[in-house]
């Protein structure tokens, strides 16, 4: 693989992040609990990581603002429009995953 300079690497990673966020915005049918159960992260994790990155750089970004960046709308609006109640099976899988050593 060709050597990639740090600026280009950052630009590529940013493009990947934007594409992932766009993909998740276009798939509101995929519930956060399913993402957590299958991949170990969800939209909330992405928004938390975005806030952490801003905090590390001393940039003002609230939790609500970082969530809106990921969800494309206020979090409460997204929940009301797209989030369904987790099934007992989803909750059990989540509990099992949380109990596993990381």
UniProtKB/TrEMBL annotation:
Residues 79-102 are annotated as: Disordered. InterPro entries: SMc04008-like_domain (IPR023163), SMc04008-like_sf (IPR036810). Signal peptide: none annotated. Pfam families: DUF1244. It comes from the Bacteria. Residues 30-95 form the SMc04008-like domain. This is Alkaline phosphatase. The lineage of its organism: Bacteria, Pseudomonadati, Pseudomonadota, Alphaproteobacteria, Hyphomicrobiales.
